[in-house]
Amino acid sequence: MNVRLPRAATAVLGACLLLGAAQQALADDYDLQLEVMAGGCANCHGTDGTRAGSVPPLAGRDADYLQERLLAYKRDEVADTTIMNRIAKGFSDDELTSLAEHFANVEQE
Amino acid sequence: MSVNSKPFQLRPGVSRRQVLKGIGAASSLPLIGGFAPAFASGSEGRVVVIGGGFGGATAAKYLKRANPNLAVTLVEPAQTFYTCPFSNLYLGGLREMSKIAHGYDELRDRFGVEVLHTLAEDIDPDGHSVRLANGDTLQYDKLVLSPGIDIRWNALEGYDEAAAELAPHAWKAGPQTELLRSQLEGMDDGGTFVLVAPENPFRCPPGPYERASMVAHYLSQHKPNSKVLILDAKDNFSKQGLFTSGWEQLYGDTIEWVGLSGDGRVTRVDADNLEVETEFGTVHRADVLNVVPPQKAGWIAERAGVTDDSGWVPVKPETFESQQVADIYVVGDATVAAPMPKSGFCANAQAKVAAAAIVSALRGDSPPEPYWSNTCYSLIGPEYGISVAGVYRLQDGVIAEVDGSGGLSPSDASPEIRQMEAEYAVGWYNAICQDTWGTEA
Amino acid sequence: MPHSFRHMTLSRRRLLRSSAGGLLGLGLLGAVPSLLFSPAALAGDAWQRLEAAQQVIGDATPESDGLTLDLPHVSEDGSAVALTVGVEASLDDGDYVESIHLFAAGNPNPEVAVFHLTPLAGKPEVSTRVRLNETQQVVAVARSAEGKVWATSREVRITVSGCLMRGDDVPEALSNPRVSVPGSFTAGQPGEIRTLITHPMETGLREGDDGETLPRHIIERFKVSVDGDTAFEAELHQSVSANPYLRFHLAPERSGEAVFEWHDDTGESARETSQLNVS
Looking at CB atoms within 10 Å, which of B259, B319, C39, C48 has the fewest? Predict the structure, then answer.
């Protein structure tokens, strides 16, 4: 059934909305543009780059290391690369730097 | 005011996961007067998502990630979603069906998506509502359609729904895939598996050729005198050189491919006799017949008024909003998004762009600049993987591949590289499923 | 037949934005108001700007209603775009569609093919597969024996799909001719004929692996005769896809033998025959 709110619940809602307002701060923290740019990474590295498996995780790793690695992939300087060079070449150096910082800042549990 | 006006910066380390867990906890609080607390009830907007595959599930999750104050309802009839990706591995005997199955508990419990296992029957774009099979109506501020494909029955003469029970397409994973597998198991050694491949565009361009590979693998293990015949309505197919050389290396002459110019285009199917006839009158008899037929967008797209006369859905590339109906966003195989192929990876990527566009629109912001990428892995053998990658951006108002990026696995790669790609294919599968449904099969 | 789509005719808005200048340039000042909203003006102005098409049109005022050009909106592979062109307009007694010309406005050489039809061809509709270099307008012009002219154009967007990679085979030119003919005809009624033949249709613009330009090598002429009378002919240029496919119609009055001939620019040819049974 469709949820409809009877009047009795609006007072309760009012209180909850205050809590909700505190949650709005989350929205500012979530950088929508950066998330869209990093979107494709999740498909092999997991959401927020947290996946560990045959494809290495990215979350919380050193930003400089990630940046160096991405730029090396872009320049075909990594031996035995299979796919990352083809992907890295799709981004500008600045974009790769932003991505490196983005994943470095994902907090692990 | 706009989120987009901020330059890329380091962000303080608030873990999104921690906050989202908070949302999950809130939705399990004792309901007050029977209604969930406000920050799960959509104080900032209501989005309905139709379709719980790679596109829809990703859209629902990423909408909630970006703005937990949205009410997001996902409508998907199936309680368990079987992925087309890796369904060929099941056919090849490398994976069980349970290992390509995904449920919706994570979307509910961790992300606060309302998941309704019912069918969306009709859409009223002016009234902004969706009618469900049980007669209920859902109101929306924004609607996301990710309906996948539907088969164009009888577009190929003789291939109707009844024919599909005898000559399966298995182009939607689930019972059709199991049917095809059981037919393969029942085939005598020395038989011929015939695969009819369609012209463009269709779901998963390398799919038929990975299927032929996996069937050849199964046959090499269990029925070594059997053959695979591909009758193709095209002269060129995805990763063709890589497949052709891989087939020779692994399966000798087990797989024969007949292209369009070799009279490979099938114009008539006789499912009762497992026979197909080609354009120039050649009749082929199969012991197992797999027809991948002409396709179109999932039918709900037509109901919504978002399809054009090609049967697919044209979208605005910046946001994946329908070109024809306001406030309806369409992602995945149903869309006209060339050069992006029809793949699960692309559906997931497009869903992220659409989700960001919706979140922005509901706040009155302009959408972020879109980014998409795609990687299609294909297994030619259990330890022989190949891939094609693409990175896409908006260029002059259309989606275009970024110059110099993407491309195919090298044609002369070593066996070690082929094995690494086969392993990465599994890593990709696990990661994308976790990213989409939050589950690992 | 590959599924094909019809475009709607161009909107007035697009016409007014682009072709008003062109019409004025043609010295039709007085007629501009009515011409701006006539079917001919609305249908597509690419043929107005293409000199090769204008040469075929000559002094006539072409109509667009009645000439259909089916092409996909988007093609992921420009090397073989399926196309069907046909005239559906009713003609005066004794008149028949004599020729259909195809052009690819954005290709290095815009001429694609010319189809010469006769009353023996029956239905004036032809399908083939063409090469389109890039997103562009495809133009069709048709003429009837008594001088009626039609013209239309459609835009096709060509995307380069990273998935596609060519196979390495070089087919043997003029091998494997195939003809599909209906089992029986009703006298005077059109039946569909399909033909296919192996041929690289080398454009003369491609470089081989050694950097040398590969010489042009194409089928230039295709001819169908029934009991000695020419029924259908096609002039082909290098924008016709490799392994040329042609679908057209024949409407024989009585049973007879059809002879199919392909001639390429080296002087080589191939020949197939088929019985036409009129019941």
Answer: C39
Examine residue C65 and state whether it is found in any structural domain, yes or no. yes
Q: How far is CA A70 from CA A81, A93, A95, in A?
A: 12, 9, 10
Q: For residue C15, is it within any domain?
A: no
Contact between C188 and C208 (Cβ < 8 Å): no
Inter-chain residue contact B375 with A39, CB threshold 8 Å: no
Which of C79, C81, C165 would best serve as a mutation to test chain B binding (most B beta carbons within 10 A)?
C165
| B275 and B309, same domain (yes or no) | no
Q: Summarize pLDDT for A21-57 with one digit per residue, the tens.
A: 433 334 556 899 999 999 999 999 999 999 888 899 9
C-alpha distance from C55 to closest chain B C-alpha (Å): 33
Suggest the residue from A36, A45, A93, A98 to mutate for an interface test with chain B (most B CBs closer than 10 A): A36
Radius of gyration of chain C (CA): 20
Contact C165 B339 (CB under 8 A): no
Q: Among the residues of B82-239, which ranges form H helices?
A: 87-91, 105-109, 161-164, 175-186, 207-222
Contact (CB, 8 A) for C57 and C79: no
Quote the domain boundaries for residue C86.
52-276
- Is B278 part of any domain? yes
Contacts of residue B308, defined as CB under 8 A and 6 or more positions apart, other chains included, come to B314, B324, B336, C73
Q: Are residues B162 and B125 in the same domain?
A: no
In a shared domain, residues B160 and B289: yes
CB count in 10 Å sphere of residue C168 = 10
**Domains of chain A by residue range:** 30-104
- Domain limits for position B98: 13-150+296-367
Q: Tell me, what CATH number does C117's domain have?
A: 2.60.40.10
Answer whether B30 touches A (CB < 8 Å). no
In a domain, B439, yes or no: no
Q: Are residues B237 and B336 in the same domain?
A: no
Cα separation of C263 and B91, whole Å? 47
Distance (Å) from the alpha carbon of B24 to chain C's nearest alpha carbon = 41
The domain total for chain B is 2
Asked if the structure places residue C133 within a domain, the reply is yes
Minimum Cα–Cα distance from A102: chain B residue: B10
ipTM metric: 0.87
Q: What is the residue-level pLDDT of chain C in tens, covering all 279 positions?
A: 443 333 333 333 333 333 333 333 333 334 434 333 333 433 457 888 899 999 999 999 999 899 999 999 889 889 999 999 999 998 999 999 999 999 999 999 999 999 999 999 989 999 999 999 889 999 999 999 999 999 999 999 998 654 554 555 677 899 999 999 999 999 999 999 999 999 999 999 888 878 899 899 999 999 999 999 999 999 999 999 999 999 999 999 999 999 999 999 999 999 999 999 999
B420: phi then psi, degrees, rounded to nearest 5: -60, -40
Whether B10 sits inside 8 A of A47 (CB atoms) is: no
B401, C160 Cβ separation under 8 angstroms? yes
Candidates C6, C8, C157, C161, partner chain B, best to mutate (most B CBs within 10 A): C161
Is residue B128 domain-resident? yes
| Same domain for B162 and B44 | no
Interfacial B residues in 358-417 facing A (CB < 8 Å) = 359-360, 368-375, 387, 389-393, 402, 404-407, 409, 416-417
C134 touches chain B (CB under 8 A): no
- For domain A30-104, which architecture applies? Orthogonal Bundle (1.10)
Determine whether the interchain pair B431/A51 forms a contact, defined as Cβ–Cβ distance below 8 Å.
yes
Number of domains in chain C: 1
Residue B421 maps to a domain: no
If asked whether residues B106 and B163 sit together in one domain, one would say: no
Neighbours of chain A (3+ CB pairs under 8 A): B
Asked whether residue C124 is assigned to any structural domain, the reply reads yes
List, for residues B244-299, the tens digit of each pLDDT value. Answer: 999 999 999 999 999 999 999 999 999 999 999 999 999 999 999 999 999 999 99
Same domain flag for B221 and B237: yes
Whether B280 has its CB under 8 Å from any CB of chain C: the answer is yes
CA distance B97 to B102: 10
Q: Answer whether B241 sits within 8 Å of C194, measured CB to CB.
A: no
Decide if B4 and A29 are in contact by the 8 Å CB cutoff: no
Give the C-alpha separation, B434 to B261, whole Å: 42
Nearest-neighbour CA in chain B from A93: distance (Å):
13
- pTM of the model as a whole: 0.85
> How far B328 CA lies from chain C's nearest CA (Å)?
22
